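Can anyone check this?
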Amino acid sequence: MTLTADPNTIVQVDPSTLTFNEALFQKMPQLNDESRELLLADITAKGVTVPVEITAEGVVVDGHNRVRLAVEAGIDTIPAIVKHFDSDEDATAHVFAVNLQRRHLNQTDKRKLVKEFLALDPYKSNRQVAEELGGAVTDKTVADVRDHAEAAGELPAATSRKGKDGKTRSASTSKPKASKGAGERRKIELERNATSSIRMGLDEAARLLAKNTDLNVATMLGIMTTKQKAKLTESLVSILPVILGIASELGIEVEDLPAPATEVEAAPAGVDESTVEDSGDAPF
């Protein structure tokens, strides 16, 4: 099968005739069982509503799960957009760019994709990488991901970078090595910032509790999404030992603390617990 590549035209294709090149195009992890069943049910009921992307030869570029589940659901035709790439490198960059724009990905997932793309050619400049990723991330984000990956030994520390013009330029002066004294000052600064943030957070919590004595554990947990609870759990695991240590230094024993109010109450007026959505991670 050969199709004419036209990015502005949606064609109808038989999903069972499409093929896969996962080494080149599949950059996302497989769906978990729950997500797979939900997507299968939706496709079975409505068909494929979001066009997949394919090459002129019928190789799936984006939409691997939609294609497989459409075949499983016995659907004869699905909408597709035919893409053309000048090289495998262009195709790979496109796939990474598409995946980086998925709304359900958090910052950690996106940074992981950027790191994987950097690993394909660590010597490209940060600006070139950002451009090849379709503007889904900035060159500053690329630089930050690179710095962390190099420090962790996950990427080679390149002393030169290759720009879009093909010219190689020195990168040795882009990251001056910090002195031991500078490292200690940075550590102290981070500790001060953390302490300040904790203090402000506790002060704000105290003010809220003083204004609303009806707040209790059940009410607060009732209006939190599963994702928010998971994030709160991670934060508490990190910060609770510090808080307890501070309390101990101040002479406050755990048994002296008041027991939390846990009686079940309805969610605050105007809040539908079944429809509360997480705001997601801030864009980067």
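Reply from J.R.: I decoded it. Strands lie at 10-13, 19-20, 52-55, 59-62, 78-83, 160-162, 168-170.
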